[in-house]
């Protein structure tokens, strides 16, 4: 296709520069004719210089954009190859390559701007028509926008590189030798919102994994470091006689029921960084969010209903423990109830199945991340005032939003587990979930259940979910009532899934069935040989068909940055 002639180039550019391409058709045609006449009044020399100016600017534009895209393509290709190969170039080589490409397009941009300045001066000295100077000025401004956009995009690349470098630095850290003996090595970054989190593995003399732990670093605002009772249990001003409130509450629950709560194995405080270092029990099945995403990505799968019943019951029992310290009876020293404030799939972890318990072939759900949790009672004068607006939508109960004066108590935990099961119930239509958060303007609005989910899952399960997410907390069942209703529904649940759930409760869950749960492969299983260079990190493991520790050659190497997927929910507290 032939390029436009110089006259057409001039006319089209001037129509845009002078904004002559607006107005009625007849007005635009008249302006076009005026521009043609203006061009024809130029001398041959002026026309030649104008044509060269247009060509030079266009070529410079192409060079800038091409150089900029080279830098962006490099970063994209490198990231994609990371996902495909599972390895990556050393961080310094990545940084050098990206910054080198960045310098290239910046030099082109400087050359372009300098060239435009020279052209403007040349036109002035040669008494060029004002339109030529205007045209060059417009191109200058246009390229300024392109350059600004390119700078912003490359700044994003630099930020990503810096983030990866910071993650790598975190993974390269050694665990506190006063707390952990032996050879511990950082293995995989797990992400953590504004905090840092990663998996560390302990290696024996033969190079085999013998222990695993999650190292989580949470940064605390300096204004709260020595003052906040929401950060510390004990005297916040005494570094020697205080314990992170998160550590205290989570381990209090874990001590009451280890099969329902993730244990925090130790902690330390970094006085310089104003950070809490938490050392967390590793759960081989990852978190519930990962399970949900795996099923969302495969339209041929649906989360088996028996697993939802088991999860619903287990989470309800967790709420019972937070309320009264026990499942079957009250704990005598449990004088206050604990409100978690952030129950959601990302904070529910899946430990290895326990063959001596009910549902021996499903992973054991454990609640964690008590960073927003607090102790309270119906007589607490500071409840709800001191605890509103924290949590993650759409798992926050109406009372967390501050719509009402209702206190945050056991019914708040019940709402969150109902919202969690609702989301899993609708995993085929995840868009439905965030849109269902009830607002104060219309408190009678009910959460909508999709037709597909209502056909795939039982009405009994749906009915119990609806009870949990009632706007009015007085209409929600307590965790004790909810447990009784779940067990009652299971006792009468029809069809094959009913028999399966009842068998699971008795500890007689079949090892292989249509109700198996698809899990992510376990990372660094115990006994795994680090020297092999392979890490079980991706792929699928079907609960009930393979034991924990099944291996997979993913090509990942120890200490590599392998970030988990970003959290999609909005955490209103800014914490995860």
Automatic annotation (TrEMBL):
Name the InterPro entries for this protein: Kinase-like_dom_sf, NEK_Ser/Thr_kinase, Prot_kinase_dom, Ser/Thr_kinase_AS
Gene Ontology molecular functions? ATP binding; protein serine/threonine kinase activity
Q: Where is this region: Disordered?
A: 546-576
Protein kinase domain segment(s): 184-490
One GO CC term, this protein: nucleus
Q: Name one Pfam family in it.
A: Pkinase
Give the main EC class. transferase
Q: Which keywords annotate this record?
A: ATP-binding, Kinase, Nucleotide-binding, Serine/threonine-protein kinase, Transferase
Name of the protein described by the UniProt record: non-specific serine/threonine protein kinase
Reactions the enzyme catalyzes = L-seryl-[protein] + ATP = O-phospho-L-seryl-[protein] + ADP + H(+); L-threonyl-[protein] + ATP = O-phospho-L-threonyl-[protein] + ADP + H(+)
Q: What is its EC number?
A: 2.7.11.1
